[in-house]
Known about the structure:
Chain A is an alpha+beta fold. Chain A is built from 13 helices and seven strands. In chain B, helix 1 runs parallel beside helix 4.
Amino acid sequence: xxxxxxQAAGAPATKRQFRIWRGDETGGDxxxxxxxxxxxxxxxxxxxxxxxxxxxxxxxxxNCKAGxxxxxxxxxxxxxxLACMTRMSTFTADETISVTPLRTFPIVRDLxxxxxxxxxKARETPAFAPPPGVTPGDxxxxxxxxxxxxxFRKCIECFLCQTVCHVIRDHEENKPAFAGPRYFxxxxxxxxxxxxxxxxxxxxxQAEQGLGYCNITKCCTEVCPEHIKIxxxxxxxxxxxxxxxxxxxxxxxGNKIFRRGQVPQTxxxxxxxxxxxxAPAAGPPGFHSHAGAxxxxxxxxxxxxxxxxxxEVPKPTAPTLDESGKLPLTELTFDRPAxxxxxxxxxxxxxxxxxxxxxxxxxxxx
Amino acid sequence: MTTTTRIERHHYDVxxxxxxxxxxxAAIEARLAGKKTAIISKSLFGKxxxxxxxxxxxxxxxxxxxxxxxPVHFRDTMRGGKFLNNFRMAELHAKESPQRIxxxxxxxxxxxxxxxxxxxxxxxxxxxxxxxxxVGDRTGLELIRTLQQKIVSLQQEDRREHGSYDxxxxxxxxxxxxxxLLDGDRVAGAFGYYRESGEFILFEAPAVVLATGGVxxxxxxxxxxxxxxxxxxxxxxxxxxxxINMEFLQFHPTGMVWPPSVKGILVTESVxxxxxxxxxxxxxxxxxxxxxxxxxxxxxxxxAEADRWYEDPDHNRRPPELLPRDEVARAINSEVKAGRGTxxxxxxxxxxxxxPAEEIRRRLPSMYHQFKELADVDITxxxxxxxPTCHYVMGGVEVDPDSGAAFGHVxxxxxxxxxxxxxxxxxxxxxxxxxxxxxxxxRAGGHAASYADGLASRPQVPVPAVETAVxxxxxxxxxxxxESPYVLQQDLQAxxxxxxxxxxxxxxxxxxLARLGELRERVAKVSAAGGRRYxxxxxxxxxxRNMLVVSECTAKAALERRESRGGHTxxxxxxxxPAWRRVNQVCSLEGDIVxxxxxxxxxxxxxxxxxxDRAELAxxxxxxxxxxxxxxxxxxx
Lengths: 366, 637
């Protein structure tokens, strides 16, 4: 009932100004509400309070209220967010808080949009292809090999990355040809899956999913509530050309640098660890592996032959962060034209040959 | 008036109500059996409450400790449920869960791995060996996503074969079923509405699988989402099926109690499995004071031994923080009642002083993330404030253990997952629900398909029943004199939370039943403002009658069971009574009155009895049963 015992420890409730979009596909408006706010509450609490008081039919999706299901995606002060994870304490006391539906998808009513676009794209993405001849219970994978895909499987399908992506945000005409960041990382996840039997995930993403539309502005990474490095770890590796994967040392080295986000900065500097370079293929024959570390001593040895360990390894630097400690949201606010270099600001091309290590898969035969 | 109402009609062989783990697994099985299958989801596809499961899925694969096997898992499950479990369900569950987990890998699941590349398994309360297959602390999400993607892959197959994704399996997202329709005693279909448009929809189908989850929304402090309004329980009752064990509700011992925005949300048991300890406001690690006699043999009695266990579990006994959930919840409740709680009414769960910050972030990434983002608490620096939260209902639809077919006088109705009863007895072990929903989801889906195959004629949906269902659904919108559904829900939650909560007393239960009676009249007159398009007030108004009838079952059964066992604690009858162990309480509906019967528990087979030692059984069984057990072991010798 109205009595909040837990309030004992908190500050008294105050009234805050909200503007919430009400309407349906025929049109609508921002409506003003003055709502009670208590200490420790999030925006979704306020929406629930409105529902139980002056706006009982205010439509809003939600489920877990713990940032795990990705249902309560809305735009708060214009920024795509989960209502359950936006704490009221992040606003200043006199700030008016506007809550609007996701802009990229058609309105159903109030804060609810028709997100079926995403489910259609999901159905168009080819599913996991189990390795032939491996019986259930006999799947063997190393933790390091599954971790890259596991990062993408953290996705809670809140579709914030989809709504923020400017390829489709105000461009309805791009929707048929563009799957969006959520499904690029789905493709990347399967591409990096140690046992997935298909080997055309990249080609598919480029030919069918519209990966080429993406110009790496990292808006999707910025809004991801699970902090998945959608651009760096998912999209960019998928943008490699197929031939590059095996034979182009530049792209391969670029990859290593790219994954810097996963390695503590200090440990990368000219550390001559044997893990820094290795042959592309590892694991049992028949499976392709994109492992970060090899478990095959033969591959390890191969990789080390012909490698100049005394070379100067370019030192990767962290991407430029804004004052909130995050990547800058858009190219509009960026300090130079076009997108930042995916290889980091400190690397220029072509790289001098002595900076490269390359082990040809068949070098032992010479 | 009703004749003018537009109703969309569909024909399916199997309709699965609920799109959580159990529902999706059932649908996969029905589709693999060649049946045209519909999945009905109250939320968007893939948003099910299953995503909240953090710890893992229990399966005796023996990857981490090779001594694990199904009999050990069976024993743990029976022990955890205080021997009130349906033994056959516990047996099937223990035997089949490894297969169900391995199967997920063929769908694309990526569990955490052991060093030799197999599925890693972690320790959890009540499990003798590390047994929980897991993905960090987001196992439920992995499970739901895997099943969701498997369904998509089946749809892609169907498209190649038949030209349409929806040819043989279709997901109806944001759709609520309000009524099951019967042809005599046979299920003939299901009636409901699209949440988005408010339009009605009628499924004609000979077999229905209920997989609607639990009832937690009847409680104020709960880890459950809005969907958990006991729909499946209520639909089953109204269709003539029975519910068992409704008095047993699991209060998860460690829900967040501060700040209010996240009140009730779970802190996974893995925090304790990985070294987290419970302390009261005096800084005392109090769980050592609460180890019950039945568990003394397995749990450490000193901090030193408990701390050694994390490194060397073979030569030390487990820390008491890892007792089954009911024990820990009661202990926390007692500490708070004795005035040793935190300001917000919980106790401290401390992992910060036990592990390095880096290690905490690595092992418990989503816990760290959740506390940081939702509550601005850094669990690597400060302890969490936790307390019991309504988490899971052990009771549910009484089913045939092998097929999941509902008992009572209805045919063609199946149930799996949290909505079914019996598997977990009086208390569920952590990790057993994810495996439960895979094992019994598959069974229910498969048996629903073969039931549909075996029918000589398709049952017909009676027209008057559809008209009644339409009228019932529209009634709250047409009334403008009744109370707001939100007020009624708050009142219901207050009654259940205060009078039928974690500790129960006879007087309060009697009072609760009287107040639920009053609420029934008020709910019958509820009115919802607004129209039919995505109107949450209307949706809640329709859910209320389900919540109410299920709450009545719980209160009635709780009043009747004069003992304390698992998820049912009576202050006036604080001990376990072996005579009550032999009894299931069965709820049925006559008109709109909940009727309670007693039914003896099925008798465990001798070879399963023989898995336990006599000293342990003596704590649970009546003298009569013990004599039988002695005679049995005598024979073997």
